[in-house]
Amino acid sequence: MSLPLSGRHVALLYGGLSSEREVSLVSGRECGAALERLGAKVTYVDAGRDLAQVLTALKPDVVFNALHGEWGEDGCVQGILETLRLPYTHSGVLASALAMDKAKAKAVMAAAGVVVPGGGLFNRFDVAKDHVIAPPYVVKPNAEGSSVGVFIIMEGANQPPQEVVAPSWTFGEEVMVEPYIRGRELAVAVMDGKALAVTDIVPVNGFYDYEAKYGEGGSKHVVPADLPAHVTEKAMKLAEMAHAALGCRGVTRSDLRYDDINDILVLLEVNTQPGMTPTSLAPEQAAHTGMDFDRLVLWITEDAYARGVAGGIASSGETPG
Questions:
Q1: Would you state the CATH architecture of domain 9-89+293-310?
Q2: CA 213 to CA 187: how far, in whole Å?
Q3: How do strand 174-179 and strand 194-195 relate by DSSP bridges?
Q4: 3-state DSSP call for residue 163?
């Protein structure tokens, strides 16, 4: 009996050029192992500037994009894959570029009725000079993920974050400054346009930073979240609305904050290529619905291949599964 992806050649993109390279390497290894268990021929590609030449030589049936952050998740790699007419996983060029740009994504989502935080873009030197909005507030890069370069300025802080003007700052001249929403960190994965569940993320050290996200034991994930029914319903609805508003496809993950004292729920951002590591949220939510990791990877790959067939850029032979 043949395996679901038997005979299918999958180029697995991982690593890449962004600050999230290490996470992508882990995601890529996990997804590649699943693809191999499913019977695919997997070629691991550490995606650099020569990606077009590498893929032209490989001629894969489908590309599994396990990159995170700049270059791999912001529409650049997606543009290369479109030019090469290769089916690929996750969202397309426009949705990827929009979701990565927090300011533009917030504008599009707000216009569609998604509740998002206030604030806006400010020059990093102005942000370091004085409080541009009243504390408490959050400062973060406009186009990074995984909580890289995020600072929370609480009430009573003597000065704004000086790290944004340090020589080591590489995240652009403008930064996003938003009011800080106290309360609980929530996440909702959306698969094929439908929300899977709500996860309540409880960081061990008080803030869901990079280490809390990816370090072993850095946070506790409660799925399904213990929330009032109307909050669960609203969180899932907002995630679906955001996914649709940005034009996403495949699997995404929305990050939200819930102020459980004032009953305020806001959607912070949408991740078009959510992490696929042992501590990642989307695989946990899929498992909660009865879909194990291998089946999730299979669905993501089949979805990409089927769209390629429908678009005339992949073989019209029998799709896997």
A1: 3-Layer(aba) Sandwich (3.40)
A2: 12
A3: unpaired
A4: helix
Cβ atoms of 88 and 81 within 8 Å: the answer is yes
pTM: 0.90
Give me the chain's average pLDDT, please.
91
Evaluate if residue 13 carries a pLDDT over 50.
yes
Q: 122 pairs with which residues across the strands?
A: 175
Ranges of each domain in the chain: 9-89+293-310, 98-115+183-272, 120-179
Is 214 marked active-site? yes
- Per-residue burial over 64-101, b = 16 or more CB atoms within 10 Å of its CB, e = otherwise: bbbbbbbbbbbbbbbebbeebebbbbbbbbebbbbbbb
Catalytic residue from among 275, 303, 305, 308 = 275
Residue among 18, 27, 96, 271 flagged as catalytic: 271
- Residue 271 known to be catalytic: yes
Hey, is 309 helix, strand or coil?
helix
CATH 3.90.79.10 assigned to domain 98-115+183-272? The reply is no
Give the rounded distance of the alpha carbon of 158 from its chain centre: 33
In this structure, what token pair is assigned to residue 64?
């599994």
Same fold for the domain at 9-89+293-310 and the one at 98-115+183-272?
no
* Average confidence (pLDDT) over 118-146: 91
135 cis-preceded (ω within 30 degrees of 0): no
Using DSSP's 3-state secondary structure scheme, residue 287 falls into: helix
By the 10 Å C-beta count (0-12 exposed, 13-18 middle, 19+ buried), 311 is classed as exposed
